[in-house]
Structures are given as structure tokens and as C-alpha cells.
Design goal:
The complex is a heterodimer of chains A (about 60) and B (about 250).
Chain A (H helix, E strand, L loop, with lengths): L6 H38 L19
Chain B lengths: L3 H5 L2 H32 L13 H28 L2 H33 L7 H22 L3 H14 L3 H11 L16 H48 L8
Helix pairs in contact in B: 2-8, 3-4, 3-6, 3-8, 4-5, 4-8, 5-6, 5-7
Classes of the chains: A mainly alpha (about 60), B mainly alpha (about 250).
Chain lengths: ~60, ~250
């Protein structure tokens, strides 16, 4: 593709957009994976939100 | 009867809805981006700017999204302060870094267009300076939130600053009319740009807007997960500290 004498400016602009958006996307994906792993670890340890806990039978859990 | 925003204010419902919507939004953004880049690559050179006009296809949408993202941060902040929607604060927090990234792109691509067009990367004219202030405002919002340990207080204070910063939006929009600037007047949808150049511009604007909303939704989902992790860990710590301790054997 011949972009003329100012091609370097065009490529630099599209390169900057590609790099910044790629960093943003990778950060978002990595952050999502990190949070999900933490939740899974807590879940494996039995630490769950009330809505995610299995229903308890009557009398269960009382001392 | 609940309004749409009231229904979405429930984080669990938001996670269900966004889980179904997000793949579609990613796919839409990818398709539009492929179409936009193809149109941009095949667009004819401008009679004045030559091929550097192709920078317009990423610069103008980045600038639009920088302002739209700030309007979203401000609207979400309003939702937090007035209606106390729990998801509004999540939305404001999620939009700030993405808005900052698009503002940075508007500044960088603008500079790269300015050098061959104006002969300089930067001038302190009203449009460029006001967009630079918007970028610092985004950084200020991010810094303020992360500097306060109490998340609820951080959210409220950041929301107040975000609402004060709304004044920047009309200043940026009308800076090219109010002051004598080197920057050209706004490139609107109904502008006189030739259709061969306007079409790639509009498709790229749609693509980057779809990408912005996909990234915003993903960032909101991440933030909701982060808050769930924090809440579960706090509950667990409280539960552990309230358990009766066994007396040491005498």
C-alpha cells in the first residue's frame, strides 16, 4: 500500500491505536481471569455467597 | 413497576444479562472493525491532506468516544449520588480508564496528523489544550478513587469530581467556535466530507463505539467480581474472628 511521503505518520497513528487497544483488551481479560480464579478458590474453600450456597435441610447447621 | 435502570441496578441480573450480551457485542465490534479497516485502506487520498486523511478514521472516533465516555462517567456518577444505584458506581469506575485510553489516542493520533498538516505536533490552542485537560481529569478520577481506602467514600468523592468535570465537555465541543484555533471545526455526521471518506469514518466510529461498549461491559463484570471477592473475604474474616476460641488446657 503506497501511502505517499507521509506514510510514517499514518502507520504510527494506526500502530498507536492497535497497541493501546491491545493493552486495554489484555488487561481486561487478565483482570477477569484473576477475579474469577479468586472466586473459584473461595468457592473451593466453601466460602460462598448466600445465594450460591446449597439449601440447608431443616435443623441443619444448628448447634 | 421497575424501570430498565432499576432492573439493571441489581448486580446479579446485570451479570446474567451482560453474560449473554457481551459475546454479541465483541462479534459486532470485530465485524465492524474489519469492515472499517477495509474501507479505510481503500479510501482515496484527500485533495489537500493526501493519504494522511486516513488518520481521521481513527482520530475523530477516538475524540468522540473520549467525550462520550466522560458523559457516561458523569451520568453514572449522577446515578450513584442521586439514585444510589449500586451498578452506577461500577459503571463510572469501569468507564474511566477506557475513556482515558481513548483520550490519549485522540491526542496521539491528532499530533501525528498535525505534523504533516500543520507542520507541528502540538500547539497550545483551545481544542488541544481542553482535550489534554480532559485526559488529566480522567487520570485525576482514577487517582482519587485509588487513593481512598473506603470504597463507598471513594465512589462518592470521585462522583462529585466527575460531575464538576462535566464543564469540560461543552468547552471541548465549542472551543473551535469560541476561540481562534488551529484545529479545524468539528467533523459532524452531516458534514460536507465526500462520501468516499465519510463512509469509512462512520463505519470506524461505529466499530470503535461497539468496542468501547464491549470493553466497558467487560470492565463492569470484572469490577462486580472484584467486589464479590472482597465481600466474601470480609465475611469470612468476620466469621473467623467471631468463632468462640477454645480455652487453653490447664
Amino acid at each position: 500500500m503506497d501511502l505517499g511521503p507521509n506514510a510514517v505518520f499514518v502507520w504510527a497513528a494506526y500502530g498507536a491505536v492497535a497497541v493501546v487497544l491491545a493493552i486495554l483488551l489484555l488487561w481486561l481479560i487478565a483482570d477477569g481471569v484473576r477475579q474469577q480464579r479468586k472466586l473459584d478458590r473461595l468457592d473451593a474453600e466453601g466460602v460462598r455467597r448466600r445465594s450460591a450456597r446449597p439449601p440447608t435441610a431443616p435443623g441443619e447447621g444448628r448447634e | 413497576m421497575q424501570t430498565v435502570t432499576q432492573r439493571l441496578a441489581n448486580p446479579t441480573r446485570f451479570m446474567q444479562l451482560s453474560g449473554a450480551l457481551l459475546p454479541l457485542l465483541w462479534a459486532l465490534a470485530a465485524l465492524l472493525l474489519a469492515a472499517g479497516l477495509t474501507l479505510a485502506a481503500t479510501a482515496p487520498p484527500d485533495y489537500q491532506h493526501g493519504h494522511t486523511v486516513k488518520i481521521m478514521f481513527v482520530h475523530v472516533p477516538s475524540a468522540w468516544i473520549a467525550m462520550m465516555a466522560y458523559a457516561l462517567v458523569a451520568a453514572s456518577s449522577f446515578g450513584l449520588l442521586v439514585f444510589r444505584h449500586p451498578v452506577a458506581d461500577v459503571s463510572a469506575k469501569a468507564a474511566a480508564p477506557i475513556g482515558a485510553a481513548f483520550t490519549l489516542l485522540a491526542l496521539v493520533t491528532g499530533s501525528l496528523w498535525g505534523k504533516p498538516g500543520w507542520g507541528t505536533y502540538w500547539v497550545w490552542d483551545a481544542r488541544l489544550t481542553s482535550v489534554l485537560i480532559l485526559f488529566f481529569l480522567y487520570l485525576g478520577l482514577i487517582a482519587l478513587r485509588s487513593s481512598i481506602e473506603d470504597a463507598a467514600l471513594a465512589g462518592r468523592l470521585t462522583a462529585v469530581l466527575a460531575l464538576m468535570g462535566v464543564i469540560m465537555l461543552p468547552i471541548i465541543k465549542y472551543s473551535v467556535e469560541w476561540w481562534s484555533t488551529l484545529h479545524q471545526p468539528s467533523t459532524g455526521f452531516g458534514s460536507t466530507v465526500d462520501p468516499s471518506l465519510r463512509r469509512p469514518l462512520l463505519v470506524m466510529a461505529a466499530a470503535l463505539t461497539a468496542l468501547f461498549f464491549a470493553m466497558h461491559m467487560k470492565a463492569m463484570r470484572n469490577e462486580i467480581l472484584r467486589r464479590r471477592v472482597k465481600s466474601l473475604m470480609l465475611t469470612e474474616v468476620e466469621r473467623a474472628s467471631s468463632r468462640p476460641r477454645r480455652q487453653p488446657a490447664e
